[in-house]
Amino acid sequence: MARYKAGKYTVERPLLLGAALADAPAGVPAAYSAYGLPLGEAFQLRDDVLGVFGDPAQTGKPAGDDLREGKRTYLVAAAFAAADEARRAVLAASLGDPTLDAAGVAELRDIITASGALARTEERIAELTSSALTALSTAPIEPEAREVLVTLAAAATTRTE
Fold first, then answer.
1. Distant-in-sequence contacts of 147-156, Cβ < 8 A, 24+ apart
2. Fewer CB atoms inside 10 A, N or C side of the chain?
3. Which GO terms describe its biological process (predicted)?
């Protein structure tokens, strides 16, 4: 989902549409794809982290809603992969429970953090952002456009809301 929804729909396709409308020179669409796909995925991973660990006052949605909804995100998959058997059982039993209370959310957050899944997700966000910026560094675009896209990358991947 991260690659095809956020990567393509949210970032890559709008860039490609803009390139087509501007009759961009050869090489620009490929560069936009190489930038947009990893950036969109990183954006989605940041959204997934905020869905579990975000501050409701900043995100505008209740803390832990992604856990209550049972979203099978990279963050959750990484926790399942790295947690011990007992913690995996708690994850499996609690994930998707619409009545999960604040204590239950806190327990799942602790499991995600202790398993290293949060750190792994943050590493993946950094890797994807680096890949996007590397692609952008050689893109045949104007410096002003490059600067705007670098700023967009930072905003998309370091946001707190």
1. 149/35, 152/39, 153/35, 153/39, 153/42, 153/129, 156/11, 156/39, 156/42, 156/43, 156/46
2. C
3. isoprenoid biosynthetic process
Question: 90: Cβ–Cβ under 8 A, 6 or more apart, which residues?
Answer: 107, 108, 111
Query: How far out from the chain centre does Cα 136 lie?
Result: 19
Which two tokens mark 70?
A: 């049972």
**Domain parsing of the chain, residue ranges:** 2-158
Would you state the structure tokens that stand for residue 118, as one six-digit string?
A: 């949060």
For residue range 49-59, list pLDDT tens digits in order. 999 998 888 88
CATH top-level class of 2-158: mainly alpha
Provide the residue type at 10 as one letter: T
Residue 17, CA distances (Å) to 11, 13, 70 in order: 10, 6, 34
